[in-house]
Amino acid sequence: MLEQLSPATTAREINKNLQRRWRLGEKFIEGWIFLAGILTIIVLLGIIALLLKEGLPIFLDTPPWEFFFGTKWHPVSDPPTFGIMPFFVATIWVTLVATAISVPVGVACAAYLSEVAPAKVRETVKPLIEILAGIPSVVMGFIGLMLLSPLVQSAFNLNTGLSGLTAGIMLSLMSLPIIISVSEDALRAVPSDFRQAAYALGATRWETIWHVSIPGALSGITAAIMLGVGRAIGETMTVLMVAGGALAVPVSPTEPMMPMTAAIASGIGNAVRGGLQYQALFAIGLVLFVITLAVNLVADRVLERQKRKFAR
Amino acid sequence: MKARAISTRQLSQRAAFSLIIVATIIVVIPVLVIVLQIILNGASAISWDFLTQAPSQAGKAGGILPAIVGTFYLMLGTIVFALPLGVMAGIYLTEYARDNWLTRLINLAILNLAGVPSIVYGLFGLGIFVLLFHFGMSLLSASLTLACQALAMTVTTSREAILAVPREYKEGSLAVGATRWQTIRHLVLPQALPGIITGAVLAMSRAAGETAPILVVGAAFLLPGLPQSPFEQFMALPYHLYTVSAHVPGMPKSTVWGVALVLLVVVLSFNVLATIIRLRTRQRRLNA
Description:
The complex is a heterodimer. Chain A has helices spanning 7-55, 58-61, 64-69, 85-116, 119-134, 137-156, 164-189, 192-200, 205-216, 218-234, 237-242, 260-267, 276-309; strands at residues 73-74, 81-82. By secondary structure, chain A is mainly alpha-helical. In chain A, helix 4 (85-116) packs parallel to helix 7 (164-189) and helix 7 packs antiparallel against helix 10 (218-234). The mean pLDDT of chain A is 91. Chain B is mainly α. Chain B has two domains: 2-43; 50-287, MetI-like (MetI-like fold). The mean pLDDT of chain B is 91. The interface between A and B is large, with 88 and 86 residues.
């Protein structure tokens, strides 16, 4: 008698069973979703752990003082020396050249595009800037090699056109897109009432840009500049191909030099795994990672402040 | 007196506007020069044989087929890992995550992953995939390395695409009794799909042009044929361009420009594809 259930009860039973299985399936999927969610943290921690594990042991051989301030990088002499000063100074030179060009040009271009340019000009220029952002760094290095380095060589009367200056100029092109787009967003975020008020007080359009829009967007523009600097510091292929690759501490940007990224890229292929040079290259990677991390974190903070500024 | 004051102010406005227009021209000219030079110098190298033959004589003759195919394998390998994980992470962040320390940490991680220099990803891939997992210098190691690099991008674009789905849709679905996952699976994801695909295409375009990481984890300069398994080394366009332009003496100029042209076409066509998808979806949304 017990088996004789009414059809309605059976349906309910089946339904319940199905729902339970569904829920189990959903729990399974949601578990994977959670894992994917924290994957970015895992990768970032993985990068940090690996750089520390492979890089720190170099300090057992070369004390930090000699590593950071040593001016001689001779990985295969006996005994080898690992001083990263030449690479560090080279990175500073190319970044300085890149920033000196890309900041004024980029901010001015952003001001033109967001405040002055007619819609038609904007719609022509913006895609071109997107193309610039899309050009791979190896192509930029190639262009630097073929087109820019002969120009730099003859203009400055140098022995070789491969120099920090050449690399810096190419890097400036590569950091322009991010500087322009972030600055433009910041300028656009300044409420138009502010501009209207300035016009009402009799200011010209330029006076409004200079005294109202740019000061209003200043923290956003600062963040844009920092992101551009971060990109220039981390760029590898372009500096590997056109900076010249010399190992001495460069005293002028017109010398051939080897920034930190290029030092890793050109050395890692020959380094014996687990050997001193291998450790030293990972330690350079660690230095690079810390610098770019700091730049990005500060840029993000500044950008947040800009966002809150006009939030209502 | 007054009229003169106004005219100096207007003069300074004119000077300032000319300056910022010049700055814009300084940005635009190099783009045009780079693209046009590559097209003009590279076009003469492009032929059927160049695109369909394997290289010979240390890359000085023959074609670049293995590099083209290797680059497409690499794009596929990257997106196979980066897209599903990116979409799932995007779902987590938009549909499940609460406003707590873990979510803040995830967002911080995404921000920082996007800023890690590409050569550091190369070191990471070398240490983890090549050595720790014993995948060796291979297509698989390179794909996984580039996928880690692309992750920040696929997560961000998926999150944006999912956030753009109107709240009312989700609430309607939940109100008629669908579970959270059913709502995501049948409603949110289809709506967010164009945005997700746009992000994926952009990530593939970027993977195609990346050089520094694959230089560390497994690109080879010359291989007789195509890789037969994911555990083999491979040729790729960007690495090929690097070696033929900087490391092979006596390389015919037109060949090098030809490699640059093919690489640029691959990368930019994927960029254009992403733009087309974005514009079409926007158009459809406007029409609806």
